[in-house]
Every structure is written in C-alpha cells, then in structure tokens.
Please model this.
Amino acid sequence: MSIRESGATAARKGPLRQDTVVDTALALVNLGGLESLTMRRLSDTLGTQPPALYRVFPDKDALLDAMADAVLAGALGPLPEADWETRVHVLADRLRSALLRQRDGARIVGGAYTTRQPTLAIADSLLSAMGEAGFTEKAAMWAVTTVFSFILGEALEQQGRTDVDLEHVKATLPAQEYPHLARHPLPALLDFDARFAFGLQTIMAGLRAARAHRPPA
Amino acid sequence: MSIRESGATAARKGPLRQDTVVDTALALVNLGGLESLTMRRLSDTLGTQPPALYRVFPDKDALLDAMADAVLAGALGPLPEADWETRVHVLADRLRSALLRQRDGARIVGGAYTTRQPTLAIADSLLSAMGEAGFTEKAAMWAVTTVFSFILGEALEQQGRTDVDLEHVKATLPAQEYPHLARHPLPALLDFDARFAFGLQTIMAGLRAARAHRPPA
DNA sequence: ACCTGAACACCGTTCAAGT
DNA sequence: ACCTGAACACCGTTCAAGT
Model:
C-alpha cells in the first residue's frame, strides 16, 4: 500500500491549513504508529519544510491536541431519543469506535489534554443522560468519568498489545505460582469486544443500582 | 531539592545492575517526568556512558518494561483473609496507589507490555477473588480486565491533567451549547479520590449483580 | 503573508577500541 | 567482562532570509 493510496499525502494549493496538517498527521500514524510521526516526516508528506508547520501549530503538542480533537469528533452525532441507559450505551460504543478507528487513537486522546468542542460535546451528552438517571450533580460527573476511564483504558490495552503470543505466556506460566491464571482461559483476554461488552454492562448495572431512586417520569 | 537528595543518583561499586538502572530511571522520572528520561541523562546520573546501559538492557523499551514491573511490584503484598469483595477492593486500591506513587506511573505501566512476575501475581490474586464470586471462567477474566482498565484510565487522567485551570474552562464555556456541563460542578472532576471511590463502588455493585448466584459456602 | 535553508541542541543506538 | 570514545542517523525547534 503506497502512501498516496492510504491518504497520507495531500495535494495542496494555497497556504497550509490546520485540517490538512491534522488529517495528514493522523494518516501517518495509521501507517506507521504514533512514534513514526515526526515533524520532518509530516512536512515531507505535505510537501513543505519543517518550519512551515510551526506557522500552523506552535509546537508538536498543539498538533497532538488537535489530533485528539479530530479523533474524538468521530464520536459525535445525533442521539436516539431513548432512556438514559441506552443513550449512555450508544455514546460509550461510539467513543470506543472512534478511538479504535484511528491507530493509537487511545494514546493520542489519553496523552492530550484538551477541553474543546468534541470533548465538551461528548461530556455534555453523557452528563445529560446521567442527570436523567437521577444522580446527584457530583455523582453524575463521576458516572461520566467512570465510563470514560474504562473506555480509555480498554482501548489503550487493545491498541497496545497487538502481537502478544499468548501461547508463549501460557507455556511458560509457572502453574503452581499462579494457580488461578493457569486454570483460566487466557484467550478470553484478547476477545476485546466481549471484554468491553462485559465491562460496560457491569458499569451500567452498577450505575442502575447506585442512582437515587426517582419515580420514572 | 537536589538530585542527590531525591535519590536520582547511585554511588556504584562493581558492574551496573538492572535494579540500579531501573531505580535511577524511576527517580529521574519522578524529578522531571517521563519525557525527561533519556539514555544519556540516565547514564550521566549513573556515572557512565550511554553504551554501558545497552549491556544491561537491549534498548530503551526493555528498560521501560522493567520500570513498569517495578511500579507494579508496589502493589504486591499479603492479602487479608476476607470475602472476595473486600479483596478486590484492597487490590484495586493498592494498584492505584502503586501507579500514583510514581510520577507518570500509569503511562509507564500502560505503555509497557510485560507479562512478568508482578503483573501475573496481581492478575492471579484478582482472578482468585473473582473465581470465588461465582463467575464463569471467562467472566472472571473480564471482571479483572474491567477493574484494571478503570484503574489505569483513572490514574492516567489524574497524572495527565496536572494543571488544568478549571476556572478558565468554566469562564469560557458556552452555556447554551453545553447546558448540562454548565449546570454541574466542574471541580468535582479534580476530586480524584472521590472519582475513583465512586467508580470502584459502581463496578463492584455491577459485579455483585452480574455474578452467578451461588449459594454462599 | 507564507515559506525555505541552514543551523542548534539534542535524541537512541552501534561499533571499534580500551582495560 | 565491562566500559569508553566517537560516530551515525535521526529528532523538535529557531531564525534569518527569501518571495
């Protein structure tokens, strides 16, 4: 697969724009991972010199923040008119998908600290749902962060461990030292969809139990 | 605070040992953050030349893996003889403390992928507790990963956002676009202990509800 | 206004050579 | 066996200069 085919290049006319730089940067990460993203390679792909980038972003961290925003923007969209639980579920699934869609998406989002449009929009939607559930104001905030931390942690694990050879681990695992691990099905660790589904359901069940019991409208 | 006072130096006799290198590296991170850790600075602090490190670790990633193990080792220790819920709770608290004790601990652990002694020991203890709770084998695995992902995500957030000026966010927050955010107490986001306590309790409640209902022994 | 050329102060890593 | 000296191929970032 050439760079051109996978969209890591940008035929440009006129001055360098933020979106172009961000899109190209994300495409580069998709090709070679986050550590392969350098200002030099990026400027190369854009057909400019490194200093040209510093007219668009003050430094690499600012670029990474913008990339995080772009990744999170993938989780935006209209929500179904439904009860709070299904809305949280939908938002959680979307957030996870947005992180997984981009190579190293979780690391990009987790590393950046941005409080801009997509972050705020997602947080607001989640808060809206939690408010409806009948949490106190603080509890609603913490319900949001709980869901978010779980999603981020799971995506991080999934995108991190790409080529674990579970066979090796299983083979070299000293069964008498770790009796429970030895007795459990290690491949279940790699079934990330099931992991996520289980965890999200667990958290939802916990939230259902923890919320103040308002009479349903 | 000088480097010597904070333990980032090591008077050495005899050849360079793994522990010394790892301890010094962690001390350097405590001083200046993960990005300040370079092989050159590390060798400087150890009183050697950079190539000497490559006789102890094949590359920087291997060193980071060993650092992750050392951080996780902080969560080891004897467990109280108690029901599965309190054991999970104790393990979760310890794991979080171990991550927070070391600057950038969550990033070090989240970035490494090691399946060595401390990781396995912690996983085994958690699995033991989950098994007792009456989960199926797979569900027990996923219960462990759920707790772990949440802990990692929370620690990452806490260690990442060190100097957020919530005042600024609050002040510039367009209230009509994010009505729920505007109505909720943003400072609750920085009460990381309460966030964690809420989340862990939520997950525990969810696990209690989701487990197979065996008769108590 | 927007970009290039050239440089600065770093990186991780390798390799020959020293003791 | 263990380490040093010197180098290679990179980094992010700055700054003068070009158009």
Remarks:
- Residues 1-6 of chain A have pLDDT under 50 and may be disordered.
- Residues 15-16, 48-49, 51-52, 55 of chain A lie near DNA strand C (CB under 10 Å from a C1').
- DSSP finds eleven helices and no strands in chain A.
